[in-house]
Amino acid sequence: MPDTSAGLLDRSRTIAPPGYNRWLVPPAALAIHLAIGQAYAFSVFNKPLGSLISGDPAHPAPTDWTPGQIGWTFSIAIVLLGLSAAIFGKWLERVGPRKAMLASALCFGGGFLIASLGVHLHNIWLVYFGYGFVGGIGLGIGYISPVSTLIKWFPDRKGVATGMAIMGFGGGAMIGSPLAVALMNHFKGSAPQGVAPTFIVMGIIYLLFMQWGVWTIRVPADDWKPAGYVPNEEHNTMITTGNVSADNAIKTPQFWLLWVVLLCNVTAGIGVLETASPLIQSVISGTEKGKGMDTVALAAAGAGFVGLLSLFNLLGRFFWSSASDKLGRKPIYLIYFGLGVVLYALAPTLGLNGQLTLFVVVACVIISMYGGGFSTAPAFLSDLFGKYQVGAIHGRLLTAWSTAGVLGPLIVHSLSEGRKAAGFTGAAAYQTVFYTMAGLLAVGFLADLAVTAVNEKYQEKGPVTIEAGGH
Amino acid sequence: MNPKPNSTAPATEESAGGSTILAWLYVGIPLAWGVSQTFIKALALFK
């Protein structure tokens, strides 16, 4: 019999019955991540938001918002993602994924609605508060909400399971960008650039779409395990059989080494994403084929390259994370960083020599490993700290992402602007960016190399329960 | 400890089969649309 005394959102109402098909759980997780992944497509609003008064992106009015002002919206959202994931992680472990997913849907969808009011009133602070602050909290809670549930359902394939969900975050931008363009075109006649009604419709669409995840998510019973699964069968010392709480995890050197690992991986990836479009345009214009192309065709090729990188970002999230189930988490990060150092160092030379195909291949492999770094992290945490509060620990680790979100663009812009001021053009202007990122990856390699099994003194004594985990 | 499981969830492997397909279609269709749109955009690089 169901526990009818508990509310519909209560964790106890989400416990799966015997015989439940665990492959129903990844789509619930994807319903959340596909929605919140829209955040990575926010740049599609940059030009329309910057021309709400003038109506012409090429000739903004003095009172129109500047690109710098608009850019803060995304930055606030990413910082709030990390902070809210860190702050609400333990609450999520206590109340379960359903309540957390609903909170995420309300914040993310509601954030759009508040931001639409900000656009309507032309008040940038309301946009920051809506999309950046409230929406950012929705991002953080939504990002970590299915992670520990998936790890509990797939102890034998942790990388596959978290790879599927986090792949959705990459896919969310691919849906959000064309959806926003179509809606803005549709509403162009009824509101400036069609942005405010687009925000309203997207807020409602995402709020409703995420409900599938909210109402279909199930957690396994405490004693459940996959048929034939023997925990830690391979006797890998890097996979613990104990459990470390979120509060104890941040006292371990392993947590901070992984924090550095994620910071280096994300910062380096941002280096490629930030420079992709101008870089490929300069590489193409240096080739025979590029000499006959006008600026419109070059810009289309640049956008095409960014799209290709998005596809490999998505595929990498699933491929590398799944591969880590076979190869191990530490070795897979050594591949990301070891291979990454070589490829980052090679990329500027390929660009300068006009070796377009090789340059594209190298960039695609780099960005696939950037995606892989995100999706392998929760499985690595689970190996080291156990599944007890892995969602909360993952939430705290995501502050590295927020830091990289500020650090990455800062490095890219300061280095590339410095080179441009010194007279370098095209791919040469980005040479030091790539070499600096290669250096960062070397730091990440050493940090990963230093990761060892967590000392048993940090583990919980005796059996752990979800209820205990929440306090 | 976790209380008893919720009996409103699919109770048999057979009924879960249809739900599983529906669940994957729910997320797979928008994802496939997004990927196809991105792929079309990426083709500009090879023109």
Give an account of the 3D structure.
- The complex is a heterodimer of chains A (471) and B (47).
- Chain A has helices spanning 25-36, 46-49, 67-95, 97-121, 124-144, 147-153, 158-187, 195-209, 211-216, 246-249, 253-285, 295-327, 329-352, 356-385, 390-397, 399-421, 431-449, 466-469.
- Chain A has 471 residues and is an all-alpha fold.
- Chain A is globular and about 65 Å long.
- Chain B is mainly α and 47 residues long.
- Chain B has one helix and no strands.
- Chain B is rod-shaped, with a radius of gyration of 19 Å.
- The relative contact order of chain B is 0.08.
- Residues 1-14 of chain B have low confidence and may be disordered.
- The A-B interface holds A 1-3, 6, 11-21, 23-24, 27-28, 30-31, 34, 168, 171-178, 209, 212, 216, 218-219, 221-222, 280, 297, 300-301, 303-305, 307-308, 310-311, 314, 360, 465-466 and B 1-13, 16-17, 19-20, 23-24, 26-27, 30-31, 33-35, 37-39, 41-47.
Indicate the topology.
The complex is a heterodimer of chains A (471) and B (47).
Chain A: H1 25-36, H2 46-49, H3 67-95, H4 97-121, H5 124-144, H6 147-153, H7 158-187, H8 195-209, H9 211-216, H10 246-249, H11 253-285, H12 295-327, H13 329-352, H14 356-385, H15 390-397, H16 399-421, H17 431-449, H18 466-469
Chain B: H1 13-42
Supply the key terms:
heterodimer; A: mainly alpha; Growth Hormone, Chain: A; B: 47 residues; mainly alpha; disordered N terminus
The CATH superfamily of the largest domain in chain A appears as: MFS general substrate transporter like domains
Poorly predicted runs of chain A: 467-471
Q: How many strands appear in the DSSP assignment of chain B?
A: 0
Amino- and carboxy-terminal Cα gap of chain A:
28 Å
The quaternary state of the protein chains shown equals heterodimer
Outline the biggest β-sheet of chain B. Answer: none
